[in-house]
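Field: COMPLEX_INPUT
Field: COMPONENT_COUNT = two
Field: RESIDUE_TOTAL = 664
Field: MODE = joint
Values follow.
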Amino acid sequence: MGILDKNLSLRNRNKMLIGVWEDEDKLIEATDAMVHSGVHIHDIYTPYPVHGLDRIIGARRSRLARVAFLCGLTGFILMTTMIWYMYVLDWPVNVGNKPVRFTPSWIPVMFEGTVLCTAYGMGFFFFWRSRLLLGVKNDLLDERQTDDRMIMAIECNEGVNEADVLNIMKSNGAVECREMSHGVQTTI
Amino acid sequence: MGHGHHIEIKQETFVVPAKGKQFAMILMILGLILAGIGIANIDRNAGAHDEHTKVEAKSHDSHEAATAHNEHVEHAVAAESHEADAHAEHANVPNEKFGPRMEYHPIEHPWQTKIWANLLIAGYFFLMVSLCALFWIAIQYAANAGWSAAVKRIPEAMFTFVPVAFGVLLISVIIAKNDLYHWAHYEHLHLKVGDAGYDKILDGKSGFLNSTLFFVLPIVLVTIWYILGRRLRSLSLQEDSAAKGDTTFFKKSIRTSAILAVIFGFTISFMAWFFIMSIDAHWYSTIFGVYNFITHWVTAITIIALLTAYLKKLGYLNIVSDEHIHDLGKFMFAFTIFWAYIWLSQYLLIWYAQIPEEMYYYQIRFEEYKANFLGNLVMNFCLPFALLLMRSAKRNRWVLGIIGTIMILGHYHDVWFMVMPGVFGPGMQIGVLEVGVFMFFAGLFLIWTLTALTKRGLIPVNHPYIEESAHHDVGV
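Field: COMPLEX_OUTPUT
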């Protein structure tokens, strides 16, 4: 499960090369060039969704939709069980001589429960996964990646030519290049 | 957004393909034949029985029973049972159970009325669908939406069907008003308080449900919507020949759309109240207008999606991609849920409160039309909800086509189901007449829309957001 993936933390990784952009068009060009030169991009962090970027770096489809479905299903089952327990098992009440079994009056409870669990579940898992949840130590490469800067991170695995990577970054409008090893960043 | 691969925006001229023309023609001809068979097969003798009951209804006894039923329920029970004893041969129609309609106003021309009722359904359905297509354009402008610019010409073409559909609707109600609507029949009786057969509910509603307002208001409203719609359409055409970057027409379109959206939003319910809800004139439901709007709204979006997929398959709409189809699919999915939400909102309150005036509408539909009642929910909610849940389904033209067809049929059936039990009581079925009438009008609507599409370029090339629409991307 990616949600609990310890490898998500950038601190435990190999040396990282970090490029900083201010302009999304230039970032797209740089990403394009990087992908074409065969360098694997670890990830790109942007303060807002940049259209087309996900396709260029070949990002997989987000699992958030599936999480939402499962949360909704959980809410549905939870609420159905709850109202069945209250209304049938524990304390049957004769309301206007309506039958004490499944009735249309259950539907709003089931519906609202489903919506509630979907919404809260999605919010919770999204923030957890993006390490923005209260109590989860965040892992920002740059404070301004949540504001107005776009960050590209490339892991220096075997076969990555650092000089080439830096060259591509700088020639495509990176305003700053840094390297990070064991959590310490140095400007290059 | 200057990135991504370049997409050339060029004008396209649509030509109705021979196959499409053939398909529409076959639909229309087959529809006519089936409707003819259906008309020939209507049981004309059914009138004899009703003629008889009509005489009964006009007799003093029955009037007394009717009046008593309205004013004093206990007396009514006694009177009813007395009447039931006296005319045991009519006991097969459980009048008391299905509300006041059967009691007061038996239909004078039952078999002709069946034809007019079918035309009412078809006219109303396609009128509302065309109007909702117009409203769709209006909200795209009002919301400043960019992605939809590429498919904008399709709802514009659908909107041109308004006069035809409204004509059919008007013809059917002009001819068969007194049989379709029992308030119209009652109106001619000119009854005063205390008269035999006086109906407090119908009298109370007569300020709204009267022949003058019934014709004047819909004609005025449709004229207003039509004028605003024509303006939107002509602005869109002028924009095509305007200079590149000229946003005058776009701004005018936004203003027109805002006016249209407000007027439409406040007045569309009148159509539902007059033409459909007044069939059950004794009935009360405050959400009925919204319910009718949403039924046709989701149908209009479905038709837009299917036509987009069709044009794409023919090789038109170069700038439209799966992303647009996906968003239209989301629209369908979202409003499928909203339809069910509104359906339940109406049903649940009536079911819970169990007030006789409200309940008989669902009682007849649930007890005498169980298959239709459940089929309505399956076709319009369960199937589309389950099948459109997946992202891949919303992006697949074939899946969308199949679900869309189910939804269009389902919502036509929904309108049928609002009209028929109200007019004729129990025992109506979807027969060849219904199928034939639907096929004929579906074919006519299709060929009309496709022909309207040929009248102008398929791409609004000078729309300020056309570039954004061409690069529309919903992400991985």
